[in-house]
Amino acid sequence: MELLVEQKPTIEEYMRIRRIMGWGDISPESAQQTLNAATFTVCLREGVNLAGLLRIVGDGVLYIFVADVMVRPEYAGKGLGNRLMQAAISYIDEVADPVATVTLVPMPGSESFYERFGFVRCPNKVFGEGMAYLKHTNVSRD
Whole-structure pTM over 0.70, yes or no? Predict the structure, then answer.
């Protein structure tokens, strides 16, 4: 049974799980800065091993962004993503102002997973399609 605990992973764990998930390598400095910027972080552990994690960033009241929903591939299919999201929703329900903007950017094909927790696809009557600033990425703008 994996233990759900509100805590930050170590810098090394964070860098490793990003790499395993195919999200790219980052410097220890970037890892430390982004971990420190989170308003909420929850880890799933099997013993000392990090099985998954979820972070929330933003101001913790009006603007809340669900980030880094990650479950290591060897733990997939065990409901760990559900446990992470349930923890996130509990946190959001506790801290978010009634008019807060709560967002996430799902990986392509994972939208239906987040819909189970009350997220809706854009565009909708509240939000447009969403936009991304790609100047500092190696992603083509075409």
Answer: yes
